């Protein structure tokens, strides 16, 4: 056989092995993702966090559960997915984006809109609902967000009742959406740290603020969970998978490995 044949055969073998390696790596990641997704309480065996730190991370436990993320470490366990989650879903591609997004959630978030969305939700006349937003929203962006949140809440209210997230309209006001804002900050701080957009010290500063926010407004892990689900429902409407989120919350509230069971509010 010619020298050229051996060269071409070697190239073919190299390309084939490279393809199989990449395919195998992708398959491994997919299997890892599927396995993690079925673990509502995914524990990092290498974690050495003190209970006080673990308790602060637990503010984001429901977000962590939906992504198959570790519950007990800054490390998420899904580092291979973070570029998509942060870049495509959150628009976070650098340190400035990270800080701006988390500061926004802590200083404004869904909490800014909720009192007016709640007020409009109690009204049956669309014109009166619009008057509420026209009166209080200070920009077109804020107006559009408030309208969208109201529509999503109206669309999912019966579903929230059916899944026993709430038992009445009054429960919406009692729980609010603080859990939704605080839970997302907690996850973003971890993810942005793992992507080296912020330091671990900064991550804990954001987690501390999220923890303080949740504990100022809510009275228990249960209330945190319901508040998170309500906020998510107002964010995504029928696409929020409220029944799945409620099931995850119930497991976090009952599984002996869960931080919500192991650690007092």
Automatic annotation (TrEMBL):
Keywords: Coiled coil, Membrane, Transmembrane, Transmembrane helix. Residues 86-265 form the DUF1266 domain. InterPro entries: DUF1266. The chain crosses the membrane at residues 6-22. Residues 136-170 form a coiled coil. This is DUF1266 domain-containing protein. It comes from Phocaeicola plebeius.
């Amino acid at each position: 056989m010619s020298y050229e044949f051996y060269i071409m055969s070697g190239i073919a073998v190299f390309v084939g092995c490279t393809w199989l390696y990449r395919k195998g790596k992708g398959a491994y990641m997919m299997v890892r993702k599927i396995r993690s997704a079925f673990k509502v309480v995914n524990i990092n065996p290498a974690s050495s966090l003190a209970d006080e730190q673990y308790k602060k991370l637990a503010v984001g436990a429901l977000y962590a559960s939906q992504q198959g993320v570790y519950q007990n470490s800054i490390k998420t366990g899904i580092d291979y997915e973070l570029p998509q989650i942060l870049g495509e879903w959150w628009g976070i591609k650098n340190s400035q984006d990270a800080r701006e997004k988390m500061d926004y959630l802590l200083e404004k978030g869904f909490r800014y809109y909720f009192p007016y969305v709640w007020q409009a939700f109690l009204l049956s006349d669309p014109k009166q609902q619009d008057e509420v937003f026209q009166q209080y929203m200070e920009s077109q962006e804020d107006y559009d967000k408030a309208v969208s949140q109201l529509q999503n809440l109206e669309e999912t209210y019966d579903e929230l009742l059916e899944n026993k997230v709430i038992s009445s309209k009054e429960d919406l006001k009692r729980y609010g959406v603080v859990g939704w804002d605080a839970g997302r900050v907690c996850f973003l701080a971890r993810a942005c740290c793992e992507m080296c957009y912020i330091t671990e010290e900064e991550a804990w500063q954001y987690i501390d603020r999220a923890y303080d926010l949740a504990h100022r407004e809510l009275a228990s892990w249960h209330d945190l969970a319901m508040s998170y689900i309500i906020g998510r429902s107002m964010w995504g409407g029928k696409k929020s998978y409220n029944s799945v989120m409620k099931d995850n919350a119930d497991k976090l509230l009952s599984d002996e490995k869960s931080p919500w069971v192991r650690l007092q509010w």
